[in-house]
Amino acid sequence: MEKLKEVKGGICAAKGFRAAGVGAAIKYEGRNDVALVVADAPCTAAAVFTTNKVAAAPVLYDREAVKGGKVQAILANSGCANACTGAKGLADAKLSALVTAGELGVKPEHVLVASTGVIGRPLPMDRLLAGMKSAAASLGRTPAHALAAEKAIMTTDTRPKEAAFSAKIGGKTVTVGGMAKGSGMIEPNMATMLGFVTTDAAISRAMLKRALSLALAKSFNRVVVDGDESTNDSLFLLASGEAGNAPIVKAGADFDSFLAALEAVCVSLARQMATDGEGATKFVTVTVKGAKSAKDAERAARAIAKSPLAKTSWFGKDPNWGRVLAAVGYSGADVVDLETEVFYDRVWAFRRGTVADAAQLEKLAAVMKKDSFTVTVDLHLGKFEDTIYTCDISLDYVHINADYTT
Amino acid sequence: MEKLKEVKGGICAAKGFRAAGVGAAIKYEGRNDVALVVADAPCTAAAVFTTNKVAAAPVLYDREAVKGGKVQAILANSGCANACTGAKGLADAKLSALVTAGELGVKPEHVLVASTGVIGRPLPMDRLLAGMKSAAASLGRTPAHALAAEKAIMTTDTRPKEAAFSAKIGGKTVTVGGMAKGSGMIEPNMATMLGFVTTDAAISRAMLKRALSLALAKSFNRVVVDGDESTNDSLFLLASGEAGNAPIVKAGADFDSFLAALEAVCVSLARQMATDGEGATKFVTVTVKGAKSAKDAERAARAIAKSPLAKTSWFGKDPNWGRVLAAVGYSGADVVDLETEVFYDRVWAFRRGTVADAAQLEKLAAVMKKDSFTVTVDLHLGKFEDTIYTCDISLDYVHINADYTT
Lengths: 406, 406
What we know:
Number of strands of chain A: 15
CATH topology of the largest domain in chain A: L-amino peptidase D-ALA esterase/amidase
Shape of chain A: globular
Largest sheet of chain A: 9 strands, mixed
Oligomer: homodimer
Helix content of chain A: 25-40%
CATH class of the largest domain in chain A: Alpha Beta
Order of helices and strands of chain A: EEEHEHEHHEEEHEHEHHHEEEHEEH
């Protein structure tokens, strides 16, 4: 497999895509809140949505729209989720897709819509559509255009999130680039997250869907912030085919190269989301190994990543292996405490019944001061392993979510 | 069924029990940390323990000890959980039961032990046993003795917790009294909680176990603080038989009267635990009704009670029905958002697609200022209902758990 190369340009890095982001005062003045991503021609498309039974209007709309398999444009807004808005919400989603199609000269069934923000308020259609028109007039292919779009989908995010990687496939350079938003309500199955990924790979829809599903499992579905799942999560993948590679229609080296680039983009975006978790001061990679089964490894790692007690201990720079072990204990995974080891980075805190002494705690203290570290639990019961990306729970997490208004 | 009467005296309210609590400097100077509860004669006993696979040494010890069916004394300490302490921890638990039995002149197999506090540290046996002797010398039957014992099992609790109720059974007054500790790591299945309940009812062991199981389901197993479950949870129920009622050996009016008193004690203790949830500023009763099944009602109520986003919104005095609905949506319960109503106390916030307007928000604001309120979700899909007791997540929750030390 060819080596991956990280490249610039985010959602505009692949050939055949333009983007724009503008301010339309959907909720606040003076910030970008309407984004457009537009392909030069209809793209092969795949999408994944929230599993929340209270799904927002744009999700209900897109689930139908994407069945056609082709997408040429995405209209997205922040500031209003268009969720729990009933028939009017669905009509607003449809109308905004229709008007966007007219403005761009593309087919209405090739337009997806995405919203994020407060639940239960109607979309301010006048401002949204005015913003869409202004965005359509400012579309471009530069990194600055990509950045403007990234900024327009941010809610409590503190930073825009983008990633792009290229790979060689049959002598051609194939690029995958993307943008995402999301910093709260993340877990499981990509909660309040919007992720848009574009590629110039030529690939069949079946293989595109398969690649998205595989990449998702290793990235967005492995991020935990607070354990809540939103009504609006959507991940779109559009393939323009402009790279000129021989179309990928089956498993093999070409597919693997494409998948590697897609995974690199998705894992990068997922890690950026955990790093930017609401109020987060620590990015924490939780790895459970030596599990009896894959299921055990996953649930133990998720339990640790979701434990409010473990998360607050990280915020307090405390290498509290007891809370980590307790979380494994109630996760449902098989565990024998006296067979288990707990490490922060490569420094052990608990080793088969032996507890860190003063000298060891000093080494651990150095790890806990870092902005980013790994918590590794080795169960020594089998050979299965899983990794979850997460963050701490800080005072600011509570501030942000207590002050966010209905 | 006779009317219940609330009475004073906590763990000493029922006939035949003495208690004591003393300071033994297990972790801190100047506070009670060793408690004894002693019956005048061996009692019929029932117990329930944590389901965490990482169970503490006292839990491992008690699980065996309680199989005999008789208990006469409980030794409990705070400051050290005696968890993840291996063979030495188990030996320490056994030894402390043995020495306690010798001191009190009771059979070793009639002594239970309980510990709560930091995980992974050995019990300071010298101090624990010195404390036990001092407690044995100060046993008594007054409310002050009960209070001293309650204080000795507190960790991050801010208040001691006791309750007692009496009922008439066949002309005799039967009393049930108890004490509990626990304010973090609570949920599900009574996490870090110690609960000791005594009664003077004459009752068979089979009926005692049945009553405990029924009362547990409506009380401690319906409390959520942060979703973590501890390694040390234990709930003990001791019946002295001194009330002189005709022994309860089967279902019927007598059993129902006893169960009502036991439930009243357990629900009171459970509510005190949620009210005293770490850093809690609000006691919140979450009721889901109109569910398609009992399972749906429970999981929807639990999802709301566990949602960090809902909990932080309550702290922020925000009637955020959107986060409540989103939690129901990912709970797995059947829900149709536009059929659903959400109330804070009796004030609606979301009603089948209609969202609270400014006038309604003003009414809601008055509810959100209260220290205690109810969140009710009516799914309008069936006739099942469940209730979970919980609290908000505050800045102090993070403070307390970030500063608690390994």
